[in-house]
TrEMBL record:
UniProt-listed Pfam families: Thymidylate_kin
Domain Thymidylate kinase-like span(s) in chain numbering: 8-197
Molecular-function annotations in GO: dTMP kinase activity; hydrolase activity
Protein name, UniProt field: Thymidylate kinase
Organism for this UniProt entry: Lapidilactobacillus mulanensis
Residues that hold ATP according to the record: 10-17
PANTHER family: THYMIDYLATE KINASE, UMP-CMP KINASE 2, MITOCHONDRIAL
């Protein structure tokens, strides 16, 4: 497939969305291809409706595997409607979260098993992996602090959430170690402009001048 497919991964609050915004113009200054910024479920009615089912707070009885299957179904629809057509038109796709998020959150965080969730997603995406994945590496506590704007010290409930996020982090590190060609780590603890600059220096190698 033509085009360039880049995904952005990492914990909540790592700065993915912030970095993507400032990377677009840097890419456009070098490469004449159209840049498409998308996020899951990303501009697809069906994918969005599936996502609503997952996120509905009334669905407390949702089984963890059902959740993983619905994310995979939503991803497939987004892939088919948004990502694949853009790549076929030789465009550059910047996708805020993709398959690695499921492996990290459902596989690691929810403890369904990273291998099993990866297999489930292989079925959904049929081999359409990003050409490049930027992993925003950040200590778990820093990410949570950015999102929640809280200081040090967690109560019992937050402690449980911390354990969940520690499992997500561990699963991400496992993915980075297992896929050195595709996944590159970015130091997300730097200032926003430094994070964007590090992302761009990696992306630059994939651009057509
Ligand atoms: N490099 C940075 N240093 C400090 N704060 C940052 C940095 N990048 C982003 N932030 C701030 O941290 C918060 C989270 O950033 P952002 O929304 O970009 O994260 P995200 O990775 O997209 O998170 P999510 O996965 O929850 O969407 C925002 O308040 C943002 O302004
Ligand atoms: Mg975001």
């Amino acid at each position: 497939m033509a085009g360039l497919f880049i995904s952005f991964e990492g914990p909540d609050g790592a700065g993915k969305t912030t970095a993507i915004k400032s990377i677009v113009s840097k890419i456009e200054a070098i490469d004449s291809r159209k840049v498409v910024v998308t996020r899951e479920p990303g501009g697809s009615k069906i994918a969005e409706e599936i996502r609503q089912i997952i996120l509905d707070p009334q669905h407390t009885e949702m089984d963890d595997w059902t959740e993983a299957l619905l994310y995979a179904a939503s991803r497939r629809q987004h892939l088919t409607e948004v990502i694949k057509p853009a790549l076929a038109a030789d465009q550059i796709v910047l996708c805020d979260r993709y398959v690695d998020s499921s492996v990290a959150y459902q596989g690691g965080g929810r403890q369904l098993g990273t291998q099993a969730v990866a297999q489930l997603n292989d079925f959904a995406i049929q081999g359409v992996y990003p050409d490049l994945t930027l992993y925003f590496d950040l200590p778990v506590a820093v990410g949570l602090q950015r999102v929640r704007k809280i200081g040090a010290g967690f109560d019992r409930l937050e402690g449980e959430k911390l354990a969940f996020h520690e499992r997500v982090h561990a699963a991400y590190l496992q993915l980075v170690a297992a896929n050195p060609q595709r996944i590159k780590s970015v130091n997300a603890a730097q200032k926003p402009d430094q994070v964007a600059a590090q992302c761009f220096s990696i992306i630059q190698q994939y651009l057509v001048k």
